[in-house]
Specification:
The protein has 174 residues and is mainly alpha-helical. Helices cover 72% and strands 0% of the residues. The radius of gyration is 16 Å and the shape is globular.
Length: 174
């Protein structure tokens, strides 16, 4: 990928993440990123994460949560996104680690919701459910946020991989 292409993608990412962007600008930039990643899943995701790095690790809560939102929106809107096993594991770990960042927990749940729809193995699903139940005060979340969490749990528990037997609920919820 040329420096010019990376530069133009960086401008789109900046336009989405920037605190000065209007909702219309963010939507436009999100659509541009969806098109870009859709053209080549592997290269697109790698480039996106590489260019989001400074925002994903920012000390500014707004920038960090918007960067997480952009990644989560890409995952949730490209239903046929193809990730290899290593990438799936990487993003599962990223999202469960990021669950503890309260400033972007809603954005993280959106990403987890998209990830569980991909073919994850039972240990990844177990890790996700365990972390959600340990970290999120589900009963006190706003309704739409709580519904996303319930959707994740419903999907996992109705998944044919049957991780329910593997979960230790007593230690998970403490």
């Amino acid at each position: 990928m040329s420096d010019q292409q990376k530069s133009s993608i960086a401008v789109v990412i900046d336009g989405f993440v920037s605190e000065l962007s209007t909702p219309l600008q963010r939507t436009s930039n999100l659509n541009k990123m969806i098109i870009y990643v859709s053209e080549d899943h592997q290269r697109g995701v790698i480039t996106l994460v590489e260019l989001l790095g400074q925002y994903l690790t920012s000390t500014n809560d707004i920038l960090r949560s918007r960067a997480t939102l952009l990644l989560s929106e890409i995952f949730s809107r490209i239903s046929d996104l193809k990730l290899n096993d290593a990438q799936k594991q990487h993003f599962v770990q990223f999202y469960i680690d990021r669950l503890e960042d309260i400033s972007c927990s809603q954005e993280v749940v959106l990403g987890i919701h998209a990830l569980v729809k991909m073919t994850l193995n039972s240990s990844q699903l177990k890790l996700i459910v365990s972390k959600i139940l340990k970290v999120l005060p589900v009963q006190s979340l706003p309704q739409s946020f709580r519904q996303q969490v319930f959707d994740i749990l419903l999907f996992v528990f109705t998944n044919p991989q049957k991780i329910i037997d593997d979960l230790d609920f007593e230690n998970t919820i403490r």
